[in-house]
Amino acid sequence: MSGSLIQLSVFVLITAFIGLLTYLKCRGHGHSTASGNKEYFLAGGGLTWIFVAGSITLTNLSTDQLVGMNGNQMALLAWWEFAAVVGLIILAKVFLPVYYHYQCTTTTELLEMRYNNKHIRALIGLIFFLGSSLIFMPAVIYSGSLFMINMFNVDIPLMYVATAFALIGALYAIFGGLRAVAVSDTYSGILLLTMAIVVVVLALLAIDFDFSGIPKERLTLIGDNDSPLPWHTLLTGMIFIQAFYWGTNQVITQRAMAAPNLKEAQKGVYAAAVIRFIIVPAIIVVPGIISYKLYGDINDAAYGTLVGDVLPSWLSGVFAAALAAAVLTTYNSNLNSATALYVCDIHEAYFQKEPNVARLSGFVTAILTIVSLLMVPVYAQAESIINLLQELYGLISMPVLSIFVVGLLFNNVNANAGILSVIFGVALYSYFSFVHAPFGLHYIHLMPITLACCIALALLLNKLVFKQTAQWRGKLVDAE
After folding, report:
1. How far is CA 239 from CA 28, 49, 78, 215, 358, in A?
2. If I label 169, which of 60, 109, 206, 440 is the partner at 20 to 30 A Cα–Cα?
3. 3-class secondary structure, 475
4. DSSP string of 292-327, one letter each residue
């Protein structure tokens, strides 16, 4: 019992300490009734590269990734992280110069400017909004709550823990805006990455750095046709998946758009890429592989089981605080971004042009918090729903990316042509995913095919239906 009390005490103290550091850093940047979009959603352009890098890193890294990726118990999954480095470079070199040129608050604001149409911005903004509020937010507090209950081995209703996560995350988002979210992300990220590295080192010591006895397919980085990630998929759709996620996803790019200038933002993204390349691949595959040697094929139980065995009891409270921080930061990042999308893309466009941003955002955040909590029991009852929702979100990746590509590369494209191509793309990839995959192609190979079809259809509809001729821009931004 005393050991459990020590774990819990350490957990509470560290969590409170991160909150205190965040408060001290953000003090003096409170929101007045005149606070606008840039201050509330982009921290007034005040994030240095360190906080940009920290927030991007921890927004993406949570229990879903640590538990789920290690649950595959194979090295091959590290390619998702290596490929993410390319996605971050695309964000820094391709998308960020455009976002800063147009002074965007949301990624979808770029679409309104390029297509001169608020409806296309609202449609894509709504898609991202629903993805955050109905998929990622409830999923992360569900998985995080389950992990915390199992780690402390306590008999507490899951909804109690989920409610605590949701309320604390909402407080960060409501009272601190993106500034508090990004600062807490960075402090929490230092803790999480440190603890995750400690787990890797202790796990390696547990097997005396001996990987013998582990099947070759668990250790290889070259996947065959029957593996979850065949090597040739890295040459086709993988790059476009990463471009979509890191370049157009509001939850990620919002952090990079909150720096004082483009150069500072790019430094932060490059730093996040270095972390992604050097640290993240090891922490999301090595513990899983080692758990296979120690326990066999135990899937998602791999990470939790290994951590429980290799960490000294006095460190388990620290690790719990690190994981709780990961859950909170992913949750409040999605919460803040979903609120930004609603306020900027929908409310200001259709209901009230100049609202009290802080008050409206607080109200929207409260509603989203309640909705995400109501979704938790649904996720808890049927894991297949999680898989289905993730698949459904995957259906929109290439269609949405296509509308950004067309907007960036061409002038004089009718917004309705882009909207229709998005609808077509979702239907096409749905057919590929649930009805028939042509030539038995891997789903990643089908993504560039879907992307190309969407771009071609948008240009054809623009010419044949809307009687406009698309003009090749030749450059991403116009000269000043």
Report:
1. 41, 25, 15, 29, 37
2. 109
3. coil
4. HHHH-S-GGGHHHHHHHHHS-HHHHHHHHHHHHHHH
267 within 8 A of 49, measured Cβ to Cβ = yes
Contact between 52 and 255 under an 8 Å Cβ cutoff? The reply is: yes
Tell me, yes or no, if the pTM score tops 0.70: yes
Closest CA to 63 of 180, 151, 171: 151
228: its two tokens: 């979850």
311 with 4: CB under 8 angstroms? no
Report whether pLDDT(76) > 60.
Answer: yes
Q: Which of 352, 365, 305, 449 is nearest to 137 (CA)?
A: 365
What gap in Å lies between CA 399 and CA 285, rounded to an integer? Answer: 31
Longest pairwise C-alpha distance within the chain? 76
Which DSSP string do the residues of 271-282 spell out, in sequence order? HHHHHHHHTHHH
Can you name the CATH fold of 2-383? Sodium/glucose cotransporter (1.20.1730)
Helix/strand/coil for 68: helix
Calculate ∠ Cα 269-64-225, nearest 5°. 85
Q: What is the mean pLDDT of residues 1-23?
A: 71
- pLDDT bracket for residue 388 (50, 70, 90): low
The pLDDT value given to residue 32: 43
What lies within 8 Å, CB to CB, of 24 at 6+ separation is none
d(CA 178, CA 341): 13
- Residue 20 CB-density burial (10 A; 0-12 exposed, 13-18 middle, 19+ buried): exposed
Mean residue pLDDT across the chain: 85
Residues of the chain with CATH 1.20.1730.10: 2-383
Q: Which helix (H) or strand (E) holds 373?
A: helix 357-381
Of how many residues is the chain composed?
A: 480
* Helix-, strand-, coil-residue percentages of the chain, each rounded to 5: 80, 0, 20
Exposure of 115 by Cβ count < 10 A (0-12 exposed, 13-18 middle, 19+ buried)? buried
Rg of the chain over Cα atoms, rounded to whole angstroms, equals 22
Range of weakest confidence among 51-65, 224-238, 454-468: 51-65
Dist. CA 400–CA 462, nearest whole Å: 17
Q: Which amino acid is at 208?
A: D
Does 155 score more than 90 pLDDT?
A: no
Quick one: how far is CA 392 from the chain centroid?
16
Determine the Cα–Cα distance for residues 8 and 404; give it in Å rounded to an integer.
Answer: 47
